[in-house]
Design goal:
By secondary structure, the protein is mainly alpha-helical. Helices cover 70% and strands 2% of the residues. The chain contains 16 helices and 2 strands. The chain has helices spanning 2-17, 34-49, 55-67, 72-83, 87-100, 106-113, 118-136, 142-151, 154-159, 163-174, 181-191, 206-214, 217-232, 238-251, 254-265, 268-271, and strands at residues 196-198, 201-203. A two-stranded antiparallel sheet has the order 1-2. Helix 2 packs across helix 3 (55-67), helix 6 packs antiparallel against helix 7 and helix 13 packs across helix 14 (238-251). The two termini are 27 Å apart.
């Protein structure tokens, strides 16, 4: 914790006092080249908050990595600091919206709200509240709750109009596979308010299907698969999937999601070593 506070202090001090005219002389090292560290920092910023770092941010992240010769501990500390940027959740929401809702944003949501009433309005208001609560870190249920709201609204309904299309899309979007015939039929039955069993849990409504799906181990393992593909451009092995998913399954929190992300982004494979 003291090291993390130290990094935050460095970033704050540099942001307040450093000018673009000050040139940071990076010390030489024969083990890991400076360009490797700088490229890694650029990849981290693009991956975590959707943009390249400023020169000030680059230097602030470079120094602890250089001093520790890019140790795993220094990687994790820098990633955690970047995740604390206010842009983190905006980028996360944007990426998920692109994958799930064809890229709708707050302007689209606000416009849709004006045309809705009753339960449709309630569902859209819940989606509207997801991003601000994520930013405030007050969204109970964390990332799974955001995903629940992203599939339970009129935008998603218009994209996937039939009950079967809805069920298949949820499986493909979040665990990157098609449902089995049994899963398809049970899921469809729930969505049309019939009885169904999914992941050994019974339900009889669309809300039951959503709750069961996004609370299942399959969903959390699917998130590991998605992040591996997003950052490493490959599927995890069976061992990696189980290993990387375990802490997130146990915590089911935003911090658990960030820790999963950090583990992948701190690998030699992501850096290219």
């Amino acid at each position: 914790m003291k090291k993390l506070i130290f990094i935050f202090s460095i970033i704050t001090i540099i942001s307040c006092t450093k000018t673009e005219e000050v040139i940071n002389i990076h010390p030489p090292d024969n083990t890991i080249e400076n360009i490797t560290i700088e490229t890694y920092i650029n990849k981290l910023y693009v991956s975590v908050i959707g943009r390249e770092p400023t020169s000030i941010e680059l230097d602030a992240s470079f120094n602890p990595l250089r001093e520790a010769n890019l140790s795993y501990e220094s990687r994790e500390l820098v990633i955690t600091a970047i995740q604390s940027n206010s842009e983190y959740y905006y980028n996360l929401f944007r990426l998920e919206s692109l994958n799930i809702l064809n890229g709708i944003d707050t302007v689209d949501i606000n416009a849709e709200i004006t045309a809705l009433t009753g339960s449709e309005l309630e569902r859209m208001l819940a989606l509207q509240e997801a991003l601000p609560k994520l930013v405030e870190e007050t969204l109970e249920g964390g990332i799974p709750e955001m995903h629940k709201r992203m599939v339970n609204n009129s935008f998603y309904d218009k994209i996937h109009m039939s009950p079967m299309s809805f069920v298949i899309s949820v499986f493909e979007n979040f665990i990157q596979r098609s449902p089995s015939d049994e899963e398809s039929e049970s899921g469809r039955n729930m969505v049309i308010e019939g009885q169904g069993i999914l992941f050994s849990q019974s339900g009889n409504s669309k809300e039951d299907f959503i709750d069961i799906f996004f609370e299942s181990d399959a969903y959390f393992m699917g998130q590991t698969n998605i992040l591996f593909n997003r950052y490493l451009f490959r599927n995890p092995s069976s061992e990696e999937s189980a290993n990387y998913s375990l802490d997130y399954i146990n915590s089911r929190t935003i911090e658990g999601y960030k820790e999963l992300q950090t583990r992948i982004l701190s690998t030699d494979e992501f850096i290219g070593l």
